Amino acid sequence: MNPLFSLAVNPLVHLNAVLNSIATVLLVLGFVLIKRGHRQAHGWVMLSAFLVSCLFLVSYLTYHYSAGSVRFTHPGFVKVVYLVILVTHVVLAMTVPFLAAATIAYALLGTGFKKASELPAEDRSRYLAKHRKIARWTLPIWLYVSITGVVVYVMLYHLWPPADL
Q1: Transmembrane region positions (predicted)?
Q2: Residue 3 domain-assigned (yes or no)
């Protein structure tokens, strides 16, 4: 591997990996906070994870719009593993914006954010129940996507980079 390889690649590739890593840390921190009963801190950390993931999405789309895509050229079993990770990552990544937005919306309604504070207590309780129910799906999928995004980056750009990069 060319020691200068990482400097020759579009810097957005590295930024994307950093943003995915930060999102992963924030998601885990948010989970720990809610398990310890720190609801307000959990909310702010999860909103931060959503913001970081939005920044990632903008950077990711900008990169692929301007630079195209990079093929994984290493043959054999490693390529199969890479493709399985990549396909599951991409398929699940398409669900994260919708799941995250719904999870956040239910949380905001359930906690009485802004005008939602005028909702009857039983409605807010119902929204919090929906939040908890969908969050059980959102968190593991979002974590998987964030972690595998970094794994794909490491495999493609550091462990087995294409010869023409």
Answers
A1: 12-34, 41-61, 81-109, 141-160
A2: no
C-alpha to C-alpha distance for 93 and 149, rounded to whole angstroms: 9
> What's the average model confidence in pLDDT over 102-106?
97
Q: Rounded to an integer, what is the distance from CA 86 to the centroid of its chain?
A: 14
The whole domain housing 118 covers 11-158
Residue keyed to tokens 């994870």? 49
Q: Report the distance separating Cα 100 and Cα 56, nearest Å.
A: 14
**pLDDT value at position 70?**
85
CB atoms within 10 A of CB 42: 19
pLDDT at 94 over 50: yes
Global pTM exceeds 0.85: yes
What domain count does the chain have? Answer: 1
The answer to whether 126 and 102 have CB atoms below 8 angstroms apart is no
d(CA 93, CA 96): 5
Q: What mean pLDDT comes out for the span 12-20?
A: 94
